[in-house]
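Researcher: Here's my situation. A collaborator sent me these components and asked whether they could plausibly form a single complex. I don't have experimental data yet, so a predicted model of the whole assembly would be a useful starting point for our discussion.
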Amino acid sequence: MRTLFDHVSRDATDGVFPVCDVPSRKVDDVLGAGLVRARAPRIPNLSEGDVARHYTQLSKLNYGVDDGIYPLGSCTMKYNPKLNEDVARLPGLADVHPRADEALVQGSLGLLYDLSELLRGISGLAAVTLQPVAGAHGELVGMFLLKRYFEERGETGRTRVLLPDSAHGTNPASAAVAGFAVTEIRSNDRGTVDLDALRAELDSTVAGIMLTVPNTLGIFEENILEVTRAVHDAGGLCYFDGANLNSFIGRARPGDMGADIFHFNLHKTLSTPHGGGGPGAGAVAVSQPLVEYLPVPWIEKTGSGYRLDWDHPKSIGSVHAFYGNFLVAVRAYAYLLQLGDSGLRAVSENAVLNANYLQERLKTTYPLPYDRLCKHEFVLSGEGLPNDVSTLDVAKRLIDYGVHPPTIYFPLIVHEALMIEPTETEGRESLDRFAEIMEAIAKEAHEHPELLHAAPVNAPVRRLDQTYAARNPVLSYPFDEGESAAA
Amino acid sequence: MRYLPNTDADRRHMLGAIGCASVDELFSDIPRDVLAAYLPLGLEARSELEVLDELTRYAESNEAAKRVPLLGGGIYDHYVPRVVGHILGRSEFYTAYTPYQPEISQGTLTAMFEFQTLICELTGMEIANASMYDGATALAEAVLMADRIRRRRRVAVAGNLLPQVRRVLDTYAWAAGIELLDVPFTPSGRCAWDRAPSDVSALVIQSPNAFGVIESLDGLKKRLGDALLIVATYPLALGLLAPPGAFGADIVVGEGQCLGLPMGFGGPLLGIFATRMEFLRQLPGRVAGRTVDADGKVGYTMAAQTREQHIRRERATSNICTNSALCALAATVYLASVGADGLRHVAELNLAKAHYLADQVTRLEGFKLAFDGPFFNEFVLRPTEAAGVVRRRLADAGFLVEDSAELEGLGVKNGLRIAVTERRSKAELDRAVAALGGKR
Amino acid sequence: MAYPTAFRYTKEHEWVQIDGKRARVGITDHAQAELGDVVFVELPSMGTVVKKGGHLGTVESVKAVSDLFAPVSGKVVAVNSDLETSPETVNQSPHADGWIAVLEISDPAEANDLLDAAAYEALLA
């Protein structure tokens, strides 16, 4: 596919900006030649039609939730309501500078405050910050809070964080960025945390545990209360990664499970769009002992309105230039207002029902390492498929059937993993169709494995050479190559 | 419910297929005590129309949206060409996930590759990643990266960095155990880098800085020896200003909101991050690379993934996963829409209009510029009257100007920071001058 | 590929060729097959002192990073810088041209704990 840089420049492309209406002097005179660009950036000058066509064509090479089922485990690719997109574009919300006087931005401050209150209620914890702008950012904030908490108590020997072997990669990465060493706790054969292994690790060097609840196998830790109690008894705190909140929203709260810190992924559970890789938002809720360490500024409600509150000397400081991803918060807030309590309850009901239905249907065709009640997602394995067919082949063949593949090769504790999360916004006939396709592919693995090995044949490109990309990194347009990257 | 396609019949059928008698059985793995402790929010479900009305009420309570912003400090009121919004509204772009399956993500990946190229062109650097959360965290990650490379545990930081950027850096540096050493600024408003400590992993400098003054970077790289030079910049200004790469910068970061994003009350934003190819293995964040497929066709894929958390886990170069991809797309479409010529034009408009306002104001009695260094579209006014009084006059005339608190925190007394973009017409600027002068 | 009887092996799939006070180290054919196409080798720095079992470097494929552990304690006296431009040599010739580093052994007795070719092959079976 052509890039922007393969287009030939046009003659006159201005018309976006007006002619200068103030007297202007030569740039070199105003700034001095040493500060001015010697060479223009190599950006072609195009007509609006060129731009519209180029990006429209690129968009057609993508697959979004509006195109079909997107059963990516751990991502909660639910439908993104259009109302949310429109309210985030209201000029009164979008065109506001973050440095405007508090008195003039009461709408924005009020919205952030009201959303925080709803998230506080969902978490069952004491206070919420909306500053983190991604799930991993929320994890990092959680780890910073943990670090500060123990610093303040003089317990600087607590340098380790425990996490299950099924943890998402951002968990140990976040702990490490915050300066903690990580220790993995093995899972038992039911797929949950091995309590004995956990107890063996708990000592005064442990700051806490990072748990995803339910875990990345889609299985709820039925011993969750024992796990959190054990960690608390050892003087540690419990961080819950909220990526899988879709499985129990509206009927259970992490605060009641023993969580001290909990992060939300607004771009998963609360329907804000994934955007091809962000922007998301990762609000963090905390129990009372951690409240004073939350990032500043807080949004405070007073008798006469809302204000920014910087007066928290024990705060970890700021983790974002301003107040978090406000326009993402707007979308999540609109979503919560639409759903209400009954809607949230229906979300988890349908998400879990859909996942268990698919699991039941597919377990006769693909190995199911943990054959038990799941929550909103489950993990199959591609192991044992005949003719050297791998999970990767199955994923690529799904593309030929017009469906986005599930998450593959995660979690690491399942060989040839296929993690499937349908979400509640799929209906039964969509699930049946997906199951039929998966069954057809399993049959092809036996009868026509060459179709899987060659897949995808119906996509714009097929099996990109990642080794070549890694050995010869070309990370920007090779202007000096003298050849264009023609499709 | 609007977003739930399952009917009651569907649900009954599925429960039967699973072998559950009721929905409650589906949640039998959650401890009873936890289920019993649940408290609803007390929130009624609402229709689309009601929620639209409710959100409109919030929007209408933002008086600031009705005033003319002369606010800057990292976020600017720039004009976004109409086509950007239309492309961003295509659901193939905004509802897609991260491009881990490249065959059906060539739209996102090609745009990422274009974005990286555009950032390299603007900054004069060899490689750029596909975005960070914002300019502030991009700078924090640059400092962590520089210290991974040089390992001196100390970094010099210009004292005239934007405070909101410095605050974030302080938090990340504390967590990493890196000591930050302040470098003062001179009466010209510029960083006195000749007084910077040596034996540091890096020096951080922002240009234009918190006062809007453009720093002099000539000779700085040489002065630093093998310490890395990290420059935080204003991407739109690079349509006109010499890029940090031309001065030997090792890492360039910046806030990309100026390239096609609304002000959005401060988020989402767009962190830009560029560096040398030799530092690729230490680069945080995602990066798209060009390759060929099994049939020899050119395509794009996520590259150098072994730096990232999903492979390296606790040894990743950063914990970043989701970044700001859609905002990077906005910047890409913005730059494609304006082209090199349009970018130069808009940068010149910013320069001309800001200098016009500064010239006109300083002709009035009792107004001077606080600093004599060169500036792009932002400057600090120093009135002889109390800044608060002057600010009041501007506010009464419908302008938004920041109070002096932040400047006071930087050691600048009685100052007012003013930003002027291409959106400010001559008529508006003349009105501002009249208000400053005290005329009705 | 038969595993050279002159080499010794570790459970972490490294081979060691001992020649007096020097130990040449690489990864085994099994290891390179498991990893897939090698795209990058992080070589240790010259002069680095490592303990047996300590981190010596990494070998990266597109999808995985494999740590290299020192099979014996010693000091790094040579590294195979050809791997910087041709990491694929590890795949093509893991036991010969794909060598990674040479250590000057500090404690010769440690070599006694290493597996011989037969024991390593038994491990793989």
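Model: Some features of this prediction you could bring to your collaborator: The beta strands of chain C are 8-9, 14-19, 22-27, 38-42, 49-50, 55-61, 65-69, 74-79, 101-105. The interface with chain B takes residues 39-40, 60-65 of chain C (CB under 8 Å).
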